[in-house]
Each structure stands twice: as C-alpha cells, then as structure tokens.
Known about the structure:
This protein is an alpha/beta fold. It is built from six helices and six strands.
Amino acid sequence: PNERLMIITGPNAGGKTVALKTAGLLALMLQCGLPLPCAAGTELPIFERVFADIGDEQSMESSLSTFTSHLAHLDEMTRLADAHTLCLIDEIGDGTDPDEGAAIAIATLEKLLSSGAGVIATTHYGRIKTFALETDGVANASMAFEDETARPLYRLLEGIAGRSRGLDTARRVGFAPGVVDRAEAILGG
C-alpha cells in the first residue's frame, strides 16, 4: 500500500512487457466485473483512468519520432494523472540519448508519484534502477530468467533489480558472433 510505483527491469525478451500488459488487462477486467485469476485475499484498486505507453507509434506523416510519440503520452499522463489513475509505461525514457532519456524518465516518474497515481514502468537504464532503490514509495522488481537455457520464466521477482543481458540476447538470436565478441571487449569483458 505504501508503494504506488513499480520499476520492472530484466533481460530483453524476459517478460517485462507481458507483465505490464497483464497488469493493465487485469485492471480493465476488474472494471468490467470479470473474475480475475488472483489468489484469495487479493485486493486491487479501482481506477477511473488507465494510461498506457506501450509500443511504437512513430509517424512520418505527423513528424512523430519514436521518442516524440513517447513524450506525448508521458505529457498527457503527467497532466491528467491522479490517485485514481493507473499509468503503464514500457521502456520509459527510451529513444533518445540515454542520459537525457533517464533524466526525463525520472522527472516524469517523480511527477506521477507525487500525483498519487499507480505506475508500472519498465526500463533498462541503470539510473532509473537506482532511482527505484533510493526513492520512498517506489518498488523494484525484475523478471525471472533461467540462465542455463536463456529462457524467460514470466515470474515477477519483487525487490530485485535485473540485468538487461543484451549481449546474451544477441548471442541467443544468432547475431554475428564477431560483432558480439567485439561488443563484449568494448564493455571490458
């Protein structure tokens, strides 16, 4: 009850967006009076509004880049969110310089937190993971991942920040091994 914002981290293709979409779907099912697949005793708030920034809505026609599309959604959330709002944000701050994106993301999350909204956001940015660890009212979570098989387990682990595993993912999908090896060397091993 004291945490209104959850930051979900973890590997690419590890289930972060699935968790985000599931939370949104369950919130909307509750609004419709549909039975939810939850444990006995589970309590869920009723939201008057559900905002979602999931996916990519770039448009050449409207001069809308991936980043400006995200900004439009985030701006609407920060202006309209209150204690009766759920905000679902996938890859917050993505699509621009990582430092600037993380700064915009943190400022947005601070604004949404102060509004009293319920927020679930996913990220790969270390600065946002640190923000989650250091900020009251913010929960850290990651998606469980089986290291041996590089397989997502689609299980949310509360209180733990996860690694992105970009190099592991690149290897798993067959990305050019020489390029992945070079990337690993650039990172320092």
